[in-house]
Amino acid sequence: MRSTLTLVQGDITAQAVDAVVNAANSSLLGGGGVDGAIHRRGGPDILAECRALRAGHYGRGLPTGQAVATTAGRLPARWVIHTVGPVHSATEDRTALLVSCYTQSLRTAAELGARTVAFPAISAGVYRWPLPDAARTAVTTVRAALASDPTAFDEIRFVVFNDRAREAYEAALAEG
Ligand code: ADP
After folding, report:
1. Residue 121: CB within 6 Å of ligand 1?
2. 42 lines ligand 1 (CB under 6 A)
3. Is 145 helix (H, G, I), strand (E, B) or coil?
């Protein structure tokens, strides 16, 4: 089956998918926005695995643009894939790091055998990435990854919280 791209307006923690992507920060120890919601709803097992990652391979934290998986705890998913988006900068183009969040998350998902993956609008919250560009980067990067391996997944789902984000993704999806 070929992968389909879908858009859902709702809460990322409510998605029944194989893997939910977390817009984490490099500490891996929780934060606001998507990160806070995932830890709140997913329960303490996710944080316990994040702490173990910090005690092991990721002693200095998870670098921006990289991805790592843990259990999804009590979420209706099997795994959480934590990735750290770049903070938007007006003086430096950090798009490559945002692209890397999507490609590394998909690579991690494929390694796990996940067939359905839900992405939030990485960097578009506390990290201030302008929504139209965050949406365009998300859509074009996932499309390019799927083009190179069309049967790797069943569904890649973009999950947006509000009307403004939904409109930005609708526009990005209509472009290509
Ligand atoms: P970042 O720190 O990478 O900017 P945030 O979590 O602050 O990440 O926000 C990323 C995007 O996710 C924003 O567009 C925000 O509105 C949205 N968002 C926040 N909470 C949720 C949630 N529970 N489900 C889906 N999207 C959410």
Report:
1. yes
2. no
3. helix
